[in-house]
């Protein structure tokens, strides 16, 4: 009895148009990923390209990340950055993600998923993925790639009461915005507005 092909059956069946089923699904997937990432202007072209060139693995990575962090509201933009760092640093990464995805079960708790991954020698990769999301840093060999700072998951539990640790007085990248207006007496404000270049120069003389 013939089996019904699944949505992700990337065989080479022809569909009468000259394109294989794999080509069609990859094209549709790439377009969907590209549309999703349009809302994240901070992404580099390389990060977008990596995600759109392998949309199935990127989607699987995103779902694995949601499962192991137990956060359904993860940012696709940050996911693309972490995905690119792993993808470019390890040629075995796509195959390992595909293998991890096969182990993922509906409503599976993170601890259960991690235990199953360990039993299949994929626990180390899963730990690296968790570390990437929580610290905002991906380690490739001897290099550490900074993916995010204030958006790292480790800061979420205290985000309602504490700013992310930084030398900026009002949170990360605060210095990139216009500084708040300095408080001064109204009389001084009016005097400054009414001053002319000649009076300013005279006052300095």
TrEMBL record:
It comes from Rouxiella aceris. This is Dehydrogenase. It holds the Pfam family FAD-SLDH. InterPro entries: FAD-SLDH_ssu (IPR024651), TAT_signal (IPR006311).
């Amino acid at each position: 009895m013939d089996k019904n092909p699944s949505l992700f059956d990337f065989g080479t069946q022809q569909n009468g148009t000259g394109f294989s089923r794999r080509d069609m699904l990859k094209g549709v997937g790439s377009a969907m990923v590209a549309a999703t990432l349009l809302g994240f202007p901070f992404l580099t072209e390389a990060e977008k390209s990596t995600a759109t060139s392998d949309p199935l693995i990127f989607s699987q990575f995103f779902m694995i990340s949601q499962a192991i962090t137990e956060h359904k509201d993860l940012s696709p933009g940050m996911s693309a950055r972490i995905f690119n760092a792993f993808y470019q640093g390890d040629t075995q990464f796509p195959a390992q993600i595909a293998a991890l995805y096969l182990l993922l079960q509906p409503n599976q708790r993170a601890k259960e998923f991690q235990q199953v991954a360990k039993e299949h020698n994929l626990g180390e990769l899963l730990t690296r993925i968790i570390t990437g999301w929580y610290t905002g840093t991906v380690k490739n060999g001897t290099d550490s790639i900074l993916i995010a700072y204030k958006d790292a998951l480790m800061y979420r539990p205290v985000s309602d009461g504490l700013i992310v640790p930084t030398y900026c007085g009002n949170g990360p990248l605060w210095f990139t915005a216009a500084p708040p207006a300095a408080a001064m007496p109204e009389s001084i404000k009016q005097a400054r507005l009414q001053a002319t270049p000649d009076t300013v120069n005279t006052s300095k003389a």
